[in-house]
Amino acid sequence: MKILVTGSAGHLGEALMRTLREKKIEAVGMDVLASPFTDVVGSIVDRNIVDAAMRGVTSVLHAATLHKPHVATHSRQDFVDVNVTGTLNLLEAAVAYGVQSFIYTSTTSTFGDALTPPAGAPAAWITEEVRPVPKNIYGVTKVAAEDLCQLAWRNQKLPCLILRTSRFFPEGDDVEARRDEYDDDNLKVNELLYRRVDVADVVSAHLLALEKSAELGFERFIITASTPFEPGDAKELGKDAPAVLARRVPEYASIYSARGWKMLPILDRVYVNQRARELLGWQPQIDFRSALRATTGGANWRSALTQAVGSKGYHR
């Protein structure tokens, strides 16, 4: 087995490379940035570089992307070049070189405007059946890349699984008002209820996807921490999230009080990982309850892998 990991200098790419190396699995890291986990320095937009990197590869973990924060610093054409053309280059090279599986790292940001119900409305219950409504060029290009993966499965029978990951970056929130109002750990633990996942769990989902790709052929999965909420909670979550949480996880109130933390007043969406748990056999380890237990014991609620990768920011 030889695995090509794109985006190897990024948060997830480094985490994948670290894990594969620890497991003694041959892996080639590719990124536009040099790093201890990058073997091929170059862009997926360059077909010659992609072809050279693909030789002898049996599986691809495609994590390279322009991210949402790059909307402020990069042109829409840049997004098309990297997220769409780059993915097409990889897919075509994978087919040409007989690659056995292709795992594409997508994002829950593809859902876009489907995530923001009107004020006072129930929280959006987000499963794979929800139709994406991209609200920026990032979302548009990620959906387009997903469709290219589906086409590669349909026409060339390249097994492609798509993992729509929720937030796993350690950097501060992209909304200034939330950064000002909440302690960073407080906000991120809140997010484990509905829109965050630990990078170690993202890695385990990718490795399971490699194992299941031949069997499944093509599927989309939401990769997020398991929520304690149920579909029937959606209406009240849109009006009084602390009251719902007090019923589902009664011990949270005293733990939050001791730390001076507070719960978000409402939730606008809840991501659901049921399909990934059922079809991939995925068992995420980090969730709201595990974070509470770690916090109570004075430990870091993040995985050791997340701590090892650390904070990177986003390349210019």
What topology emerges from the helices and strands here?
Elements: E1 2-6, H1 11-22, E2 26-31, E3 40-41, H2 47-54, E4 59-62, H3 76-96, E5 101-107, E6 124-126, H4 137-156, E7 160-165, H5 176-181, H6 184-191, H7 199-216, E8 218-223, H8 234-237, H9 241-248, H10 252-259, E9 269-271, H11 274-280, H12 288-296, H13 304-309
Parallel strand pairs: 1-2, 1-4, 2-3, 4-5, 5-7, 6-9, 7-8
Helix pairs in contact: 1-7, 2-3, 3-4
Characterise the protein shown here.
The structure is a single chain. This protein is α/β, with parallel strands linked by helices. The chain has one domain (2-309): NAD(P)-binding Rossmann-like Domain (Rossmann fold), CATH 3.40.50.720. Helices cover 43% and strands 13% of the residues. It has helices at 11-22, 47-54, 76-96, 137-156, 176-181, 184-191, 199-216, 234-237, 241-248, 252-259, 274-280, 288-296, 304-309; strands at 2-6, 26-31, 40-41, 59-62, 101-107, 124-126, 160-165, 218-223, 269-271. It has a 7-stranded parallel sheet, sandwiched between helices. It has a two-stranded parallel ribbon with strand order 6-9. Helix 1 (11-22) crosses helix 7 (199-216), helix 2 (47-54) runs parallel beside helix 3 and helix 3 packs parallel to helix 4 (137-156). The longest helix has 21 residues, at 76-96. It starts with a strand and ends in a 7-residue tail after the last helix.
| End-to-end separation | 33 Å
Mind telling me which CATH architecture this is?
3-Layer(aba) Sandwich
| CATH level-four homologous superfamily name | NAD(P)-binding Rossmann-like Domain
Helix content: 40-55%
Regarding CATH, which class? Answer: Alpha Beta
State the order of secondary-structure elements, H for helix, E for strand.
EHEEHEHEEHEHHHEHHHEHHH
Given as residue ranges, the uncertain stretches (5+ residues, pLDDT < 50) are none
Q: What's the main sheet like? A: 7 strands, parallel
Question: How are the strands of the largest sheet arranged?
Answer: 3-2-1-4-5-7-8
CATH topology: Rossmann fold
